[in-house]
Amino acid sequence: MANTKSALKRIRQTATRTARNRAVTSKLKTLRKKVAAAVETSDKEAAAAAYNTFSSAVDKAAKVGTIPANRAANYKSKAAKAIAKIA
């Protein structure tokens, strides 16, 4: 167990950040699945709407540092390619 005040504070900070990062990561997974489901049904309008929500969430997560910027770009690129394939 931590012996100093600063170590106790670091434990609290880590717990808070871990909880926040888990929530954001979980939300991104859910939104990514919604985009995939919309692409699966070949509904371009629903896919575009889901992509806009997903893209915004990914950008926010990257800005805060929850995910790296390159990973955010990869997520958005893959989703955009999948939507573009819908005829």
Which geometry do the CA atoms define? elongated
Provide the β-strand percentage band.
under 5%
CATH class descriptor: Mainly Alpha
Rounded to the nearest angstrom, the distance between the terminal CA atoms is 59 Å
Helix share of residues? over 70%
Tally of individual helices: 3
Looking at this structure, what is the CATH superfamily?
Answer: Ribosomal protein S20
- The CATH architecture assignment turns out to be Up-down Bundle
* Topology pattern, helix = H, strand = E: HHH
Rg measurement, Å: 17 Å
Stretches where pLDDT is under 50 for at least 5 consecutive residues are: none
Largest sheet: none
Count of structural domains: 1
SSE class: mainly alpha
Q: Which whole number gives the mean pLDDT?
A: 95
- Record field, number of beta strands: 0
What is the CATH topology classification name?
Answer: Methane Monooxygenase Hydroxylase, Chain G, domain 1
Structure overview:
17% of the residues are buried. Helix 1 runs antiparallel to helix 2 (44-64). The protein has one domain: Up-down Bundle (Methane Monooxygenase Hydroxylase, Chain G, domain 1). The protein is elongated, with a radius of gyration of 17 Å. It contains 3 helices and no strands. The termini are far apart. The mean pLDDT is 95. The protein is mainly α and 87 residues long.
